[in-house]
Specification:
alpha+beta, about 290 residues, Jelly Rolls, 3 domains
Length: about 290
Amino acid sequence: MNSTDSLRLNFKPASERPISLAPRSWRGFRAERVVLQSDDPYEFRTLGETHYLALHDMRLDDGELHIDGLSPVRRTDLRDTLTYAPRGCTVAGWAKPRRGRNSFTAFYFDPEEAADELGERYARIDPGPFAYARNAALAATMTKIKDVVAAPDTDSLYAEALCLTAAMEILGVQPRTAPGQLTKTQVDRVCDYVEAHLHQPITLDELAGVAGLSRSHFSRSFRSTTGQGPYRFVTSRRIDQACGLLALGDRLSITAIAQAVGFANAGVFRRAFHQSTGLTPQQFRKERC
């Protein structure tokens, strides 16, 4: 996916532009967060080339939203609301933001990619568009995606899982049957792959490929088989390996250990370690040495 999928904003005067955090992309998915830096009015439009989902954190003095198949919508308090338009459905309108902090997070996903991921194992409901709706579960997932966009060192495995969750929630996906179990051979292959690649980023795409499954099927089956999701499993293995290195004493710095077990940096490692053990890496080392 590329930048042509983005919502187009046209400000007047043209010199006023929004602050857009660097978009993040994964196979079949793209997300960006746009923070408005003024209360100047603007027009907006999508090209309808992908499925479009937005989480709004905005208040307007005035504005109007047009989505193919829906009546024009005029609302001013858009905080914690969601807008969705499937591919081929144009979103357009104009807005006059109220003075203050206003932003939105946009999520784009490819319909063919989603169909390949879901496959015949799922009964998919293709929803129509909606504007400024409220859905606590979907808003919570989109909030996590917003945080991923703002933190470029977020684990790709976690980001991909969030994107799949958002896609399944918006499409109303329900499994036709209970999730299947991975075979012992599949589990062993995944575990061997994780152990061999802990020192580097691991993606959901890679793990699903090792098991010979789509990402969504793999995620559900892995959780059903092991009792935990792929991201939590990989993180726990990284923490276990880090514990062994910390127990060796001061031979390696915290930064070196973080790199050795595949965390993006020492800060990410410290947060994950504390969340898992209740101790900082330094405290753990002091207790064990």
